[in-house]
């Protein structure tokens, strides 16, 4: 089984409070984009999880893909089932677009099918959130207005424009941003209808650009072309465009020191679309 593992954008990100355990309450809208990693799953009978290629600086047992697979071990129909997973990486790490979380969710979805675990999507999401707050959105597979730490999801259908996405040459530490004493943590909650009609801002932006001059430069460069936004805690910034041609025109003038992609917004995860097709194929 081969599945795409898409990135996400935070169309806005408000931090409405901080919990005693250090986690933050937030409001955001998640939307998928068609920039994807690819994961290939090959069933084995060796009761093992193997993963290739090695990612520099990340031990296999620390990789979210491996951890997600191990979470499903108790739920396998056949207790000797194993899996070999091959990852083709496209999504930049530390970009705020959810690459690691998406990989973990894709693994949960794939192995739930291949190992015949028969868990529901909410059950998979509950498992996933033990590994990361962004995993449930990728498991559920629909664009959502999210609250709590990102796990309370209400389905929404925002516009699906073309986006120009820029990645400055830096890695933003999420932990550093969320522990900064100057981070805004008291933005008043808004209603979902307000978020869809009027949008919002990203409370992390000011702190991210304070610590990361490369993000500041890319953000203000893109802002010259429209309503540029930061996704998550960065480092990626993005701009919604009226058409592919508009995005392409801006991309052609983008400084070469930044990675850039033109991508399309999607309100259904490409993982779910591909998994549904695979299941239909193999049922016939």
UniProtKB/TrEMBL annotation:
Transmembrane segments: none annotated. It catalyses: 4-CDP-2-C-methyl-D-erythritol + ATP = 4-CDP-2-C-methyl-D-erythritol 2-phosphate + ADP + H(+). The active site is at residues 8, 134. The keyword Transferase applies. Residues 198-256 form the GHMP kinase C-terminal domain. The keyword Hydrolase does not apply. Its EC number is 2.7.1.148. ATP binds at residues 92-102. Residues 63-141 form the GHMP kinase N-terminal domain. Pathway: Isoprenoid biosynthesis; isopentenyl diphosphate biosynthesis via DXP pathway; isopentenyl diphosphate from 1-deoxy-D-xylulose 5-phosphate: step 3/6. Keywords: ATP-binding, Isoprene biosynthesis, Kinase, Nucleotide-binding, Transferase. One of its GO terms (molecular function) is 4-(cytidine 5'-diphospho)-2-C-methyl-D-erythritol kinase activity. Belongs to the GHMP kinase family. IspE subfamily. Catalyzes the phosphorylation of the position 2 hydroxy group of 4-diphosphocytidyl-2C-methyl-D-erythritol. This is 4-diphosphocytidyl-2-C-methyl-D-erythritol kinase. It comes from Marinomonas sargassi.
């Amino acid at each position: 089984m081969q599945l795409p593992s898409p990135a996400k954008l935070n169309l806005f990100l408000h931090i409405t409070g901080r919990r005693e355990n250090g986690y933050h309450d937030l409001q955001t809208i998640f939307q998928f984009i068609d920039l994807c990693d690819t994961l290939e799953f090959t069933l084995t009978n060796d009761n093992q999880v193997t993963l290739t290629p090695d990612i520099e600086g990340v031990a296999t047992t620390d990789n979210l893909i491996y951890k997600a697979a191990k979470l499903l071990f108790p739920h396998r129909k056949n207790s000797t089932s194993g899996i070999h997973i091959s990852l083709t990486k496209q999504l930049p790490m530390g970009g705020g677009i959810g690459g690691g979380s998406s990989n973990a969710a894709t693994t949960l979805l794939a192995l739930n099918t291949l190992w015949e675990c028969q868990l529901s999507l909410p059950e998979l999401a509950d498992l996933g959130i033990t590994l990361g707050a962004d995993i449930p959105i990728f498991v559920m597979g629909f664009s959502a207005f999210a609250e709590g730490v990102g796990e309370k999801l209400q389905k929404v259908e925002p516009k699906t424009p073309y986006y120009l996405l820029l990645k400055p040459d830096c890695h933003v530490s999420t932990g550093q941003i969320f522990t900064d004493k100057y981070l805004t943590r008291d933005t008043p909650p808004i209603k979902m209808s307000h978020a869809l009609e009027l949008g919002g801002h990203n409370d992390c932006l000011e702190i991210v650009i304070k610590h990361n001059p490369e993000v500041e430069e890319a953000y203000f460069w893109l802002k010259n072309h429209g309503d540029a936004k930061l996704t998550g805690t960065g480092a990626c910034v993005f701009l919604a465009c009226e058409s592919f041609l508009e995005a392409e025109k801006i991309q052609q003038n983008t400084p070469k020191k930044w990675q850039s992609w033109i991508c399309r917004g999607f309100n259904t995860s490409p993982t779910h679309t591909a998994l549904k097709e695979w299941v239909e194929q193999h049922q016939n």
